[in-house]
Design goal:
By secondary structure, this protein is an all-alpha fold. Helix 1 packs across helix 6, helix 5 runs parallel beside helix 9 and helix 8 crosses helix 9. The longest helix is centred in the last third of the chain and has 24 residues. It is elongated. The chain is about 75% helix and about 0% strand. The chain folds into 2 domains: about 70 residues, Homeodomain-like (Arc Repressor Mutant, subunit A, Orthogonal Bundle), CATH 1.10.10.60; about 110 residues. The protein is built from 10 helices and no strands.
């Protein structure tokens, strides 16, 4: 039987699958080699250091999440469905959600920096038009929901035996209504 050629893509894919099923803590050379069915030598040839491989995994996680969110959006209710999609992601893919939320972010010195780095600027425009509020109020509403969704999604992804999804969605909806009320009153 010919020897299998191990590629960098195979190594990154195996590392991603380990992170997805068991968390980033399980992304270790021996575990990757076991998953691929090879010795550790080919893994070391592609991974000069584990930090580089983990960064490749984070990039793959980010691509996965972008695609996941896009596939779970309701075009008629983009803003609300985006938040709901992140909570659904936390339920279905808790390890990927934790990697996405907890990876180190550089160049962030304020919540405004976080907002600009993590959101699509068109969402604030959409919110502004949909609820007839200023762009400034729309950004505040969006930032408040971003902070709330990250927080409640993190709680959801790390609790055992687990909070019900219905309870999480109910609280997310209450926060949404409270923040929306605050944003529309800010316009008066």
């Amino acid at each position: 039987m010919p020897k299998q050629k191990i590629t960098k893509e195979m190594v990154v894919h195996a590392a991603f699958e380990l992170a997805r099923s068991s968390g980033m803590e399980q992304v270790m050379v021996k575990n990757i080699a076991d998953k691929i069915g090879c010795s550790v030598q080919p893994i070391y040839s592609y991974c000069k250091n584990m930090e580089g491989l983990r960064q490749d995994v984070v990039e793959q996680v980010n691509r996965f999440i972008q695609e996941y969110i896009a596939n779970h959006l309701d075009k008629e209710d983009l803003f609300r469905s985006t938040g709901m999609a992140y909570i659904q992601l936390a339920e279905e893919e808790p390890h990927l959600f934790k990697i996405f939320i907890l990876h180190q972010r550089t160049g962030i010195a304020s919540l405004d920096d976080l907002y600009r780095a993590e959101t699509n600027s068109r969402m604030a425009e959409f919110i502004s038009e949909k609820w007839n509020i200023s762009l400034s109020q729309a950004r505040k509403l969006h930032l408040n929901m971003l902070i709330y969704t990250i927080g409640i999604g993190t709680i959801f992804s790390v609790t055992t035996p687990g909070i019900s999804a219905d309870e999480i969605y109910e609280h997310q909806e209450m926060a949404y209504r409270a923040f929306l009320s605050q944003a529309t009153k800010g316009e008066e």
